[in-house]
Amino acid sequence: MKRQRLFFVYACLLVPLLFFIGVRIVPIVYSFLVGFREWDLLSEEKPFVGFSNYVALYHDPVFLTSLRNTVFYVLLGVPGQLAAGLAIALLLRRIIRFRAFFRTVYFLPYVTSVVAVSWVFRWIFMKNGIVNGLLLQLGLPSQLFLGSPDQAIFIVTAAMIWQNLGFQMLIFLTGLENIPKEYEEAAAIDGAGAWQRFVHVTLPLLNPVLLFSVIIASISYLQSFTQILNMTSGGGPLNSTKSVVVYIYELAFKQFNMGQATAATVVLFLLILLLSLLQLKTLNRKVEY
């Protein structure tokens, strides 16, 4: 009877394991193999070329630009998203009336279509958009915004931060509500001010939530695609907003160069893996209650 129960348990575990291997592990291994071949969708021959695809990436200025832009999205978007989300969560924690309403309002952009949000931002910051209209009314010169190589990346990052703000707020709010109030009350009795309680009590106890948020947000910005594709028509102007994922998309489905596109995918995979491990190493701190 015990063996039958164990067999049933292992059988139930084996089915999702095989599914995971089939849809996750096998494609990853296959991608590594494709990256070592000259894989043209229009050609039947796919010869082995070794590291030539990776060398081509290193000498491709468009790829290097997209890699730099992707790093910029992470460096600007992750701290901005976390800081804004935590600030709103701290404010919502203190209100009593209409709490559910405010939570819904802030969370609503996160469940809104990314394409719709991207086009709204594109309309707001277009040449004859709302923002330029306000600038002209204030006597200030109009700006190119999404048409400027220097400004476009900031507008795209702002759209990403705004849309993901609700998710970040909800995560932080959940973490704040799980912190025992006795710790803050004890610190207040000892004479600690609001800022001291936040730095020495709230933030350390929020470390697990902060670690989760940093890793999830970093992966999200490293995979930036939809906003860029819709707001800047695929990375314009002059590739100033092009991310690595957009570069891979254009290389694979516009130029049909699957070998080099897969090599770029492997580079992105390694970048995400190394960054996640680094964040786990540096931000993971054990907090004793």
Automatic annotation (TrEMBL):
Which GO cellular component does the record give, naming just one?
plasma membrane
What does the entry give for GO biological process? transmembrane transport
The question of whether Membrane is a record keyword is answered with yes
Family from the record: Belongs to the binding-protein-dependent transport system permease family.
What's the protein name? Sugar ABC transporter permease
How does the entry describe its membrane topology?
Answer: Multi-pass membrane protein
Q: Which UniProt keywords apply?
A: Cell membrane, Membrane, Transmembrane, Transmembrane helix, Transport
Originating species:
Paenibacillus chitinolyticus
Q: Where is the ABC transmembrane type-1 domain?
A: 67-279
PANTHER family noted in UniProt: ABC TRANSPORTER PERMEASE PROTEIN, INNER MEMBRANE ABC TRANSPORTER PERMEASE PROTEIN YCJO
Segments traversing the membrane: 7-33, 71-92, 104-125, 152-173, 205-223, 261-280
> What coarse category fits the chief subcellular location reported for this protein?
membrane
Q: Which InterPro entries match?
A: ABC_transporter_permease, MetI-like, MetI-like_sf
Q: PROSITE patterns, alphabetically?
A: ABC_TM1 (PS50928)
The lineage's top-level taxon is: Bacteria
Subcellular localization, per the record? Cell membrane
Stored Gene3D superfamilies: MetI-like
Q: Name one Pfam family in it.
A: BPD_transp_1
